[in-house]
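HOLO CASE FILE
Compound: 2'-deoxyadenosine-5'-diphosphate
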Amino acid sequence: MIERTFVMLKPDAVQRGLMGDIVARFEAKGYKPVAMKLMRIPRELAERHYGEHKGKGFFNGLIDYITSGPVLAMVWEGENIVADIRVMMGKTNPKDAMPGTIRGDFAQQTGRNIVHGSDSVESAKREIDLFFNDYELVSWTRSVDPWLYE
Ligand code: DAT
Ligand code: MG
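Model generated. Tokens follow.
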């Protein structure tokens, strides 16, 4: 199934100059970019995005972190992409993330784990809606698609 997922490179990824490395992994895998924007997340949007964690001990720190600088908000498309990008990201705590994963290769602490990816198709729809207008989602045909999908 071709799906879309919401991926966000967090302020530490932007500050550390890792955007290109991470985007390159998704491109190399053959995923198709559908939307990208560099933005500073308003606090209210951050709280809605992470609504499921409201009331937890780390919530305020998480909101401070995610609003502390620009993020790269993106939508990517591909076969089974929602679950598969979670695998490419690695475990939430980078200490448990395998080498070869984004968090395993580039991060050390849960509170600085550099990347967000939707955890289900439903979450992806909700998060894409939160961050992007319809006109910002680009549907396009790519000439290499027959070399990725039979
Ligand atoms: P994920 O980002 O892997 O989907 P999550 O949805 O459980 O993980 O949590 C969202 C973010 O909140 C996570 O990327 C980092 C932060 N976080 C989660 N659990 C935490 C904890 N126990 N202590 C500190 N930060 C935490
Ligand atoms: Mg999550």
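CASE NOTES: Helices lie at 11-15, 19-29, 43-49, 59-66, 81-89, 102-106, 121-131, 145-148. The first strand starts at residue 2 and ends at 9.
CLOSED: yes
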